[in-house]
Amino acid sequence: MSTSRIFDIAGPRQQRRVRIATTVSLVALVLVGLVVAEKLYYEAQFVSEKWLVFYDLDFIRFLLAGLWVTLQVCAVSLVTSALFGILLALGRLSSVAVFRIPAIGVIEFFRAMPFLLIVFAVMFGLPSVGVSMPAYWQLVVAITVNAGAMFAEVFRAGILAIPRGQREAGLATGLPSRHVFTSVVFPQAVRNTTPALMSQAVRVIKESSLGYIVGVAELLNNARVVSEFTGNFIQAYLAAGVLFVVINTTVSYLGARWADRLESS
Amino acid sequence: MDDLLKALPGLLEGLGVTLYLSIPAFLLAMVLGSMMAIFRVSRVRSLEVLGTLYVEGVRNSPLLLILLLLVFGLPDVGILLPLELAVIIGLGLYSGTFVCEAVRSGINGVDVGMVEAARASGLTTRHVISEVLLPVALRTMIPPLATVFITTVLSSALAAAVGVTELTGATRVYNLVAAQPFVAFGIAAAGYLLINLLIGWASAKSERLLRFNQ
Amino acid sequence: MMTNMSERSPSQGAVIELKDVEKSFGATKVLTGVNLSIAKGETVVILGPSGSGKSTLLRTTNRLEPIDSGEIWYHGKPIPREGRELAAYRAEVGMVFQQFNLYPHKTAVQNITLAPVKRGKQKPEEARARALRLLADVNLSEHANKRPGALSGGQQQRVAIARAMAMDPEVILFDEPTSALDPEMIQEVVHVMKRLSADGMTMAVVTHEIGFARESADRIVFMDEGRIIEESDPESFFTNPRTERAQEFLGKILNH
User: Fold this and answer.
1) Considering CB atoms only, which of B128, B161, B182 is closest to A116?
2) Which of A83, B24, B148, C108 has its CA 20 to 30 A from that of B157?
3) Rounded CA separation C221/C237 (Å)
4) At C205, is the secondary structure helix, strand, or coil?
């Protein structure tokens, strides 16, 4: 809507130009599609057995089992990350330096690290200092550390966005400061940050695909098993990709809906 | 100290590979993302749809999956790319979606009144875009694009999962050989922190240089 | 003057003429059967309560908003709808906005020279010399190389007027030029506008500055709910408004 205000409303000549561009680009896209299809056909990718994973119930069930683990990992990680994130956010907002400075350090450090490096540190670093755990928990811990730092910043922004006056009003009614936080500030912060948290959830779902590295039988890892078993890499990963895109688009959509509702209320 | 000296060459080489992957990937992402952003604000419906499909499809897939498709899938259709090139393409495709969103919100965030003033002054659409819209929008895009660049560097670590020994991969290799997790992960962490700080500093610097109120 | 003008052909001497202009935003009708003509050298002040369609009227005049039906003529020809022709027409019709809308990345001088240089009307040195003269006219010589962010609202608006003047336009449209200004800055802008009017510039001004309207307007156009409901000289409009809505409006703004 805003772009239509940046440029002049199209007159008849421009409308004609847009129609021509639409036609030309459609033709170009169809041509590209045909070239790809021809290549796929030539490489015998259209043989129905290659697409087994899309219609064979056993394969589908196997991938869905992976998806179920993905969702479990994400559900657990979201809870642990949120808790860790809240802790870090409170630390960073604290007026006590002993809490604040380590919190800032942890947040900034983990935000600057690649997720895979954290995964490797949990997989190979922790055992050498005597901390070992099953693969499932290695994945959850890695996600928690990384996503917790992200969540902390989201929560912090959410808490800072609550008008000061509300906190003061709460204190003025005689609520102790701890209760003002839990009953006035915190619920609103959660409500306002939900859209941002949803996009972090998408991130967590994508990160859980590193079960492939850690050895957790989640969606991507199961897709790898299928690809190696059938020898059809493209189809196996495409199938997993479809499931990831469906789940993530749904979560993003819900986040956007929530954001719309916040704006209109 | 000895351990440090033994670890350094391999890890520095890894750092080099990280940059070798992420800089071209970010450039590719800039080109692709800007193009898709233009598609998405154009009035050509078919291109808008293409841009939306690209962003929603790629952004919602795990990068590792995209890399696996390129590295193991492409050979199945007779396309054999050098490993690094496949990673650069995958990383560029993935980061391109974030560039697209940064560019799009930069354009949409431009003050409409200012653009109207430019149109009302008799400038043609081309000049409105090149003299007013882009110079102003580009400034607001610097911080989000710097974040995308940082994300690209961090995401390039996934190259290790498909067999490229960049910084994260080199860390793992060194740790396997020497069993020195503190040295290995410490150096790698320092390397990534350094890149983060450098990009952050460059972004802040260029933003200050281009600030309007002088 | 509220005669039915729908049968009229482009009138002699009118620079700009609107005929039966209608405009809606979605389901809201903002302009209904608007007829208006502005003659060479005339200063027309458009008054009316907020939401009466004054701004939209100005914005349709240089096609920042396209109209749904009716016609807008410039020297007896319909205004162009798009492209270079539209840009060329807009170069003849300057506009000054409520929010100044200066280019934040360019200095005062660059704001003024951009359009003349890019349109190939003036060479860069020529444009710069002229911009400095225009800035001197609005008492801003010492601010020539400052960016808008370093200028006050009143100074920005005077730069914006100089920018509009730089194209040597035949008409300038003023869309509430003083509404976003602090009270102490209003007069410096009004002063410039009064001088322009006295110099014979053709102007259409949407404003709430009654002082300007009384002193400089050749004609007052009063709008309400998207229609022009009264059109007269300032003297009779302010002393003896004919419509109830105009009386009400004047009562409110004169007694506040």
Assistant:
1) B161
2) A83
3) 9
4) strand
Q: Locate the chain B residue with the closest alpha carbon to C87.
A: B122
Residue A28's domain spans which residues?
A: 2-42
Q: Which two tokens stand for residue C177?
A: 């030029």
Contact A148, A197 (CB under 8 A): no
Q: B194 is written with which tokens?
A: 């350094």
Write down the domain spans for chain B. 20-165
Q: A–B: how many Cβ contacts below 8 A?
A: 150
State how many domains chain A has.
2
- C-alpha C79/C-alpha C94 separation (Å) is 14
Domains and CATH numbers, chain C: 14-254 (3.40.50.300)
How far, in Å, CA of C109 to CA of C127, rounded?
9
Q: What is the pLDDT along chain A (265 residues), one digit of tens a residue?
A: 344 578 888 888 888 998 999 999 999 999 999 998 888 888 877 887 788 778 888 889 999 999 999 999 999 999 999 999 999 999 999 889 999 999 999 999 999 999 999 999 999 988 888 888 999 999 999 999 999 999 999 999 888 888 777 777 877 887 777 777 777 777 777 778 888 888 899 999 999 999 999 999 999 999 999 999 988 899 999 999 999 999 999 999 998 888 888 777 6
Which residues in chain C have their CB less than 8 angstroms from residue B112's CB?
none
B213 touches chain C (CB under 8 A): yes
pTM: 0.88
- Say what the ipTM of the complex is: 0.92
- Residue A1 contacts C where some CB pair is shorter than 8 Å: no
Superfamily for the B20-165 domain: MetI-like (1.10.3720.10)
Q: Count residue pairs from B and C with Cβ separation < 8 A.
A: 80
Whether residues B62 and A21 touch (CB distance < 8 A) is answered with no
